[in-house]
Amino acid sequence: MSKGKNIAEFDLINDYFRGMTQQRRDVLLGIGDDAALIRVPKGMDLALSVDTLVAGVHFFPEIPPADLGYKVLAVNLSDLAAMGAEPAWVTLALTIPQIDDLWIAGFCSGFTELATRFDLQLVGGDTTAGPLSITVQVQGLIPAGEGLRRSGAGAGDDIYVTGSLGDAALALRCKQRGADDREDMEQLRMRLDRPVPRVEAGIALRGVASSAIDISDGLVADLGHILRSSGVGARVTLDSLPISPAVAAMLEESGDWSMVVAGGDDYELCFTIPPDRKDQLAAIAKQTGVTLTRIGVVEEGVGLRCLRGDGSIWQPEHGGFEHFSNGSGQY
């Protein structure tokens, strides 16, 4: 096949997608029928999440296809991580303008790379012609009743995040402004195009965290979801936020924390934990190899206060990425 060649949908599926991931014994019927048949193990809850990524909104159209294949799966796995779910199955709906052998092969390689890491099987989906967009649904397993939720935070709980914040937003800003020739751009770009879903950390936090969410639209927006769902408020100390040297240098120049707290695309976890469980975090950090940083505390009342080092309140200009606005998070 070559770029733009007319091809039947079933040929496309057979040539590229059937067999692109490993086979799981709990899949009774996968790709090739009207629906997949899956046997959910006894005593497990099923977690499902779906996301659509659109060219020019969620990614640059010129992104390498292998990176795009990786990212569309990573952002969905991040949702499972926030629930404490172990990934199991995935479906893929791919809309592309035309058939391009090299592009599809690259996309599949990135997708398969991450799927293999988490023992995911592709069990179905759809392909169609049109403007480039990708919809992925992931399904995962959680021991019954152990799923993490947004609604469990209580006053006095400590607030933590995994990893570091702001690198992906800085990479996006550099790309938008044509300033992507900096020495550390490749490292920043990897945080934007190949985020690491914190699946192991989410699983380890089952029974420990009182609430959790993944940071996709920015810390302020996503922590705000926890606070509203839990009926509480919080304060966060800006100086405690974990940031890379590149982001620290940007802050030293501009003093603007918006990119760190509202930039989005971090795909780290934000979670709360009662003080009497915090001693378990050192073991979790060692087990998962992920840095866990305390950034604030849950309080009575409503709303989120971001405090500077001198105790004054800092207010971001916007609260994070909005899908139905012309916000700064768009590509």
Secondary-structure map:
Layout: H1 9-17, E1 27-29, E2 37-38, E3 44-54, H2 65-83, E4 86-96, H3 101-117, E5 121-129, E6 133-143, E7 158-162, H4 167-176, H5 185-193, H6 199-204, E8 211-215, H7 219-230, E9 233-237, H8 245-254, H9 258-262, E10 268-273, H10 281-288, E11 292-299, E12 303-307, E13 313-314
Helix pairs in contact: 2-3, 4-5
Order of helices and strands: HEEEHEHEEEHHHEHEHHEHEEE
Mean pLDDT: 90
Spatial separation of the terminal alpha carbons:
31 Å
Number of helices: 10
- Using the CA coordinates, give the radius of gyration: 20 Å
Category by helix and strand content: alpha+beta
The poorly predicted ranges are 1-6
Q: Find the CATH superfamily of the largest domain.
A: PurM-like C-terminal domain
- The number of distinct structural domains comes to 2
Q: Spatial order of the strands in the main sheet?
A: 8-10-7-11-9-12-13
Note down, in words, how this protein is organized.
With 331 residues, the protein is of the alpha+beta class. The chain folds into 2 domains: 9-143, 60s Ribosomal Protein L30, Chain: A (2-Layer Sandwich), CATH 3.30.1330; 158-314, Phosphoribosyl-aminoimidazole Synthetase, Chain A, domain 2. It is 32% helix and 25% strand. It contains 10 helices and 13 strands. It has helices at 9-17, 65-83, 101-117, 167-176, 185-193, 199-204, 219-230, 245-254, 258-262, 281-288, and strands at 27-29, 37-38, 44-54, 86-96, 121-129, 133-143, 158-162, 211-215, 233-237, 268-273, 292-299, 303-307, 313-314. It starts with 8 loop residues before the first helix and ends in a 17-residue tail after the last strand. Mean pLDDT is 90; it is low at 1-6.
